[in-house]
Specification:
The protein is an alpha+beta fold. It is 38% helix and 28% strand. Helix 1 packs antiparallel against helix 2.
């Protein structure tokens, strides 16, 4: 699976669970962690977990095993390492506090 296909798969999974304000950052040459960050949010703990579960399930179904998941039980900020793509699924209250878009403002945003 190419990293672009993985990005599209992850984006579609977040969209399918009605994630809000989905932002894709191109991290190539900026971060050694991943080539792309997907940042999105949900309105409740249950929705945040549903978005994360869908990302995990769709990645696994596509033959890309998830490397790690952090924060699933708390459902405030779930980080999902898919390899070339790292997904950040926030509860809407936490997203503005951490403001990753500002932290990584030198990374160009992408339209999917």
């Amino acid at each position: 699976m190419t990293k672009e296909t993985l990005l599209q798969t992850a984006y579609n999974a977040a969209e399918d669970k009605k994630a809000e304000d989905i932002v894709v950052l191109n991290m190539a040459g900026i971060s050694l962690l991943a080539d792309y960050f997907i940042i999105c949010s949900g309105n409740s703990d249950r929705q945040v977990q549903a978005i994360a579960k869908e990302l995990i399930d769709k990645s696994n179904e596509a033959g890309n095993p998830v490397k790690s998941v952090e924060g699933f039980d708390a459902a405030r900020w779930i980080l999902i390492d898919l390899g070339d793509v790292v997904a950040h699924v926030f509860h809407k209250d936490e997203r503005s506090y951490y403001n990753l878009e500002r932290l990584w403002r030198e990374a160009p945003t992408m339209e999917i």
